[in-house]
Design brief:
The protein is mainly beta. It has a single domain, classed as outer membrane lipoprotein receptor (LolB), chain A (Clam), CATH 2.50.20. 12% of the residues lie in helices and 57% in strands. The chain has a 15-stranded mixed beta sheet. Strand 6 and strand 7 form a beta hairpin. It is globular and about 50 Å long. The protein starts with a helix and ends with a strand. The N terminus is likely disordered.
């Protein structure tokens, strides 16, 4: 009996151990500060200019649920930690701790609604909710959502997502489409995807984001757009447009 209990409990423990299924690092460069020799750093080409920040992401699967965490750091250390939980491509919840903004933001998806909460360092709490469907994503779940829809994109169609922006307590609609291909470092082709706000008013103030994926493997190679990191400018924090070069270490 004791042996049977040991086997059963050991089996349960082993089944609950998270499986590491993804790891990626990245170098973040401020776009306007890049020399001409580094123009294609987001296409996998070498760059000898110093990077402004760094990125590290990991994902772990436990049963049908996937937990992801992404860290954005600058010279002063880790500044932004993004965490998400999904089942398949369906977002369950997410959390962002932003040390630069001094806030912690969450979103929980329940019964067709996104429940947002922002907690400030001074104790203030703001919340909001809005109706959503399964197209709601956060940055770390975007590629999981796109993966089964890549044929639509590659064939020239558009895929629409609602990107949850936790600190703004809202989800914004974006259209994603193929813009063509680009030559990759070492040969081969990269698929260029543009993610643009669907609302024309927002599109006037928010520039499109560009993702560069290996055409054979769909692995993310680079990014061009607004970064989660901000730059200190005197007493103010400024948004930065960045080019990011990724290195996928594990992708199961």
């Amino acid at each position: 009996m004791h042996f049977l209990l040991l086997v059963l409990t050991t089996g349960v423990a082993q089944a609950s151990v998270p499986e590491r299924i993804f790891e990626m690092t990245g170098k973040i460069y401020i776009k306007k500060d890049l020399p001409g020799s580094c123009e294609n750093v987001n296409l996998g080409f070498a760059c000898d200019a110093p990077n402004f920040g760094s990125f590290h992401a990991e994902s772990f699967r436990t049963g049908t649920e996937v937990y992801s965490k992404s860290k954005f750091s600058n010279a002063s250390g880790e500044q932004v930690l993004e965490e998400s939980w999904r089942e398949g491509a369906k977002l369950l919840r997410a959390k962002i701790v932003n040390r630069q903004l001094k806030i912690a933001s969450t979103v929980d998806i329940k019964d067709g609604y996104a429940f947002f909460k922002v907690v400030h360092d001074d104790g203030r709490v703001e919340d909001a909710k809005e109706s959503v469907d399964d197209s709601i994503v956060v940055p770390s779940t975007l590629m999981a959502y796109l993966k089964p829809r890549m044929k639509t994109i590659e064939d020239g169609g558009e895929v629409t997502v609602k990107m949850a922006v936790l600190d703004r307590k809202a989800a914004y609609t974006f259209d994603i489409k193929k813009m063509g291909t680009a030559a990759a470092n070492g040969g081969g082709q990269l698929l260029v995807l543009r993610m643009k706000p669907a609302n024309w008013i927002i599109s006037k103030i928010v520039d499109p984001l560009y993702f560069y994926l290996d055409q054979k493997t769909d692995r993310l190679i680079g990014f061009d757009g607004r970064s989660a990191l901000r730059r200190q400018d005197g007493e103010k924090l400024r948004d930065i447009d960045a080019k990011v070069a990724y290195n996928v270490l594990l992708n199961l």
